[in-house]
Amino acid sequence: MKNIFTNKLGIARSITALALLSTLLLNNKDVLFLENMSLPENPNILERLNLFLMFGYENLYISYSIGIAILVSVLVGVYPRFTGILHWWVCFSFFGSSIIVEGGDQVAQILSLLLIPITLLDPRTNHFGKQIEVGAIRTQMANGFWFIIKLQAALLYLEAGVAKLYSSSPEWADGTGLYYWINNGNFGRGDGLVSLMNSLMTSPVISYLFTHSIIVLEISLFGMLFSTNLKLKKYLFIVAIMFHFSIVVYFGLVSFFLNMAGLLVIYLLDISNPVNLSLTNIYRTASSLLQRLRLAKRENIAAFDPTN
Questions:
Q1: Which of 8, 59, 250, 252 has the fewest CB atoms found within 10 Å of its own CB?
Q2: What SS3 state is found at 288?
Q3: Using an 8 Å Cβ cutoff, are 78 and 125 in contact?
């Protein structure tokens, strides 16, 4: 059993907190909530606990203040044993009251709920802190809940891939689904970048390959539940991050990208292996990357030099 109380787990939590935090900070309340929203006549206990319904629309600034304070606390990593439950409370409340939610908000709600047992078992005062050795029982319990999260992620990608193939709409199966989504008036960009993609996807072969590559990726991500190949998982992690970032580029769903990135860190990466977050290591990594880019640029220039 692995000790998963590392800063990599903290990174995943912080990314998901940043998703909802950015939504609250960068959008007007009139965009996110109905002006006449209120509790129903006979609210159940969960509806009574909804942070964004608790004080009414006229006092929504109170809910905002509480929610932002909690999300910032999760973002900086303080006391995961306490902020784990509070994080779920904010995610649950937002998903149950906002008029503009998407799949990423649902992922955040479920992920923060499944992380509660792990955060309660986390002995650290900050989730970016050093890995602390814990007892065998606590380690086994944490690994069990980690597996549940990975199972949930795997089923999410399996459903996403299979549903496209067996959808009542034939576009994904016949290879034109991506074209129609990119040109969707409600979500698409409608600028030069879309025109570029459209010029490529006028070819039935390219359209079919692009569309079905998404389905192959999603089903492959499901298959990673059964893989022990860490290198393959890291490779697919990068591919999946690029895929979800392309959704940001074409559809502007930044919070969706952040929530999926947080989930992918827990699902595909070995969170028992901490990341070196020291400034020295970050500088060395950045310098190494820049050096490789310069070398690659020189090699490309040399390859096309007609004098060689």
A1: 59
A2: helix
A3: yes
User: d(Cα 59, Cα 164) in Å, to the nearest integer?
Assistant: 42
pLDDT of res. 258: 96
- Rounded CA-CA distance 88/71 in Å is 10
Distances in whole angstroms, Cα of residue 229 to Cα of each of 6, 222, 233, 270: 21, 14, 6, 11
Q: Dump pLDDT digits (tens) for 175-211.
A: 888 888 877 766 666 666 777 777 777 788 888 899 9
Single-letter amino acid code for the residue at 199: S
Closest CA relative to residue 183, chosen from 168, 202, 166: 202
Residue 67: which of 27, 103, 21, 99 has the closest Cα? 21
Closest C-alpha among 18, 6, 130, 7 to residue 74:
18
CA-closest candidate to residue 165, choices 211, 107, 225, 101 = 211
CB of 98 closer than 8 Å to CB of 106:
no
DSSP structure string for 122-172: ---SBTTSPP----HHHHHHHHHHHHHHHHHHHHHHHHHHHHHHT-SSSHH
Amino acid in position 90: V
Q: What angle do CA 105, 108, 114 make, to 5 degrees?
A: 145
